Every structure is written in structure tokens, then in C-alpha cells.
Amino acid sequence: MSTDVVILTALNVEYEAVHEKLDDPRVHWHPAGTRFETGRLGPDGCRVVLGLVGKGNHPAAVLAERAITEFSPLAVLFVGVAGALWPGIELGDVVVASQVYAYHGGTSEDDGMKARPKAWEISHQAGQLAQHLIRSGGWAPEPRPKVHFGPIAAGEVVQDSRISGQARWVREHYNDALAIEMEAAGVAQAGHLNRALPIVVIRGISDRADGTKVRSDGANWQSRASAHAAAFAAALANDLVKECGDSQRQTRERNPHMGTGTSFTNLATGNARVGAQYGQVIGNVTMGGGVSSGPADVAAELATFRDLLKRAHRDGRLDDDSYTAASEELDTVTGRLDDPTPAGRGRLLVTLKKVRGLVGDSADLATQLAAIISLVKDMS
């Protein structure tokens, strides 16, 4: 399934708030055991993947990287709750991060701690769209929570005090931070390492980080703040895809090394010929002739082709029906590899040609199948 936006959360209450926005959610298991759900934000909304990363910047970074690699999204939204750092920010308000501070960086010297700031800014276009949505106010019915656009501080501990050493540190060195939480720095770093993939952090205010967190949590502010953040995130995700999707896809086409599912096209005229061209190579590459192949060679290339087929389906280059039909035909091919007779080889070739017909619009898949068909013809 092609994905427009990945939405990540840290807590189950945050996950549930986003999940309520999904139409037709379906489970997608990552090979390493991470459970994602895919769906749409409304019947005509963008395609999203929802994942739970748990608490802390480190697991958030790892699982954000995993989601980016698996789904190649146009953007990542990190949605959940945070504590307010300014008195003018009310419980239930939403904060969209203009930048994320990793506030625990520093050096300890004889005369005290010195800050070593690290920060990531929201991409310009995503920031412009977020602020337009804030101004227009069309993301939620009245009474609509107030939305603030400003920095967020992300550390490794829960802050629930105005007077602790950590609170004083944040106030002194990150004085413009509107809210504080524990995962945004990890997600922002993952986006930075993936060719500056747009990352938007959206946090509903569930407490004031002032010693009253237990009381606020008991009054169900986590659930309410999560719902407000999820509502803004859903509207922003659809706006991002509508306004930015085409330009980002064009950028990927101009720079074919971005993301996965890359395809290449060369045009040869006159007496020129394209001998071989490779983007990302998975499996074996065989060139030349004169050497017969066997069932093991074909099986290896079929395994490679299955990987390519899955990627094409995931990236939206192959629709669901064609993917399902091609997968079923491949199962038939695998079952026929052990028949060495000419008749068996003929049936194998017919099935492979059916698969080629199903995926012929994808140049890389058609090329790979042509190589497999040649191997079958040379089988001994």
C-alpha cells in the first residue's frame, strides 16, 4: 500500500485518538515485529500509517527510522500530549513545534553546566501550512481549542515541577519553549537523517509541568488533549498531501536515489543500445550467456522478484488487485520448478508471461521478469 503520511504516537491514549480518525484500518507487521496500522483519514482523505513508538527519544528515533524506511512517506507527524511551560497556554490547547530542542545536551565544567543546544526546525512549507490551518480555524468545530506555533523541548524525563533543577535549566537555556515532552527530538533526528523529510510535532497540552500532573491526568486531560492534537494532525496531514504531495513526488523523480522503489529509464536511438542498468540491486545479477541455469537459480531470482513486487505495491506503483493476482501466479510458478520436462517448462513460461502481463506497466518489474523468463528457457 502506498503511504502519504506516517503518524507516530508514544502512548496508547494518543494512539487511540488518532486511530478513531482512520477508515478501514488494517494491520501491517514489520519483519522486526513492529505493528503498524494503515488506513485513510476519512473516505477521501490521505493514506496514513499509524505506529506506537513508546516513551523516550531513543525508541522514538529507532521506530521513526523503521517507519520511514518501510513506507517512504511524504511526511511524518508525531502526535500526542505535552506539558505547558507558559502560563498563557491552557489545558487542552495544541502546540505545533516550530522547532524541537534536545535540551539534555551539555557539558559539565568546574563552574557549572554549559548548554550544548541541538535543534531541528520544521520544514518551511509544512510550517506555512500549519500556520495557515491555525489562522483559518477549519480543523475543528467550535468551541475550538487554541493552537500555538512555537518551540518544544524534548528530554528524557517527565518534568512535573516549576522549581526543580531541570525546570530552571530549561527556563534558562530554552526560554522560548512552549511545551515539554520526551520523544520529539528522536523523531526529528530520524527525519533529518532521511534527506530532511518533513517532520511535524503536534502536542495537546495535558498538564502544566508544575507539580499538578497527577491531578490533571485524573481529570482525563490526557485523553482530551490527545483528541485535540489528533484532530489538528488529521486536517494538517490532508493539507500536506494536497499541497505538497505533487511537488515532493516530482523531486523524487528528479532525484531517483531518494526513497525506495526506484525505477530508471534510458532511451537509446539509432544504433545505440542499453546493455544493463541497475539502481538498487537485490539478489544475483547474471550477464552473458552460454551457461545453463537450474531450478535453484530461478528460485533465487523469483525471491528477488517477490521483494520488488512488494515494494511496487507498497509504493503505489501496483494496485491491490494486480498485486494479489501476480502473487498467486508466483505461487504457481514456485510449485512448478521441480518439473524438468519440456511440458513443465512450457507451463512455467506461460505462467510467468501471465505475471508479466499483470505488472507490465512497471518497467523494473517487467525487466526482472524478462531475465527470469530467459533463465527458465536456459534451464537444464
Automatic annotation (TrEMBL):
Q: Which residues form a coiled coil?
A: none
Q: Which residues form the Nucleoside phosphorylase domain?
A: 5-235
One Gene Ontology term of the biological-process aspect is: nucleoside metabolic process
Q: Which UniProt keywords apply?
A: Hydrolase
For molecular function, the Gene Ontology terms on record are: 8-oxo-7,8-dihydrodeoxyguanosine triphosphate pyrophosphatase activity; adenosylhomocysteine nucleosidase activity; methylthioadenosine nucleosidase activity
Q: What is a single cellular component term in the Gene Ontology annotation?
A: cytosol
So what EC number does this one have? 3.6.1.55
Q: Is NAD found in the keyword set?
A: no
Keyword flag DNA-binding:
no
What name appears for this protein in its UniProt entry? 8-oxo-dGTP diphosphatase
Species in which this protein is naturally found: Actinoplanes octamycinicus
